[in-house]
Amino acid sequence: QVQLVESGGGLVQAGGSLKLSCATSGSFLSINAMGWYRQVPGKQRELVAIITSDSATNYADSVKGRFTISRDNAENTVRLQMNGLKPEDTAVYYCNAVIRRNWYSSSYTYWGQGTQVTVSS
User: Can you say whether residue 68 is alpha, beta or left, with left for phi > 0 and alpha for psi between -120 and 50 degrees?
Assistant: First the structure.
């Protein structure tokens, strides 16, 4: 089965930095777009950043200029460098990937388990 494993979350002071990583493992044919989302209690999950298979990127307005998404295709990993963190960035961060398992099936979106990011003031 395909699995996305996240790491790098934690507690940081306002203005600090964190780097999140998400490695994809298992049996699959290809990975297309990859991304990061975040969610706080009582609100729906929202887009943070997306990166395509050819490294085109898209960011939420709230994180532009502060966060950078990247991917390492050799390692099947997507990363999120978070600089200038603010208390309002506090959330559970989820990675996802659009993956085609084999020639018999279509592509599906897979999600990581989430990692907590807490920014104190």
Answer: beta
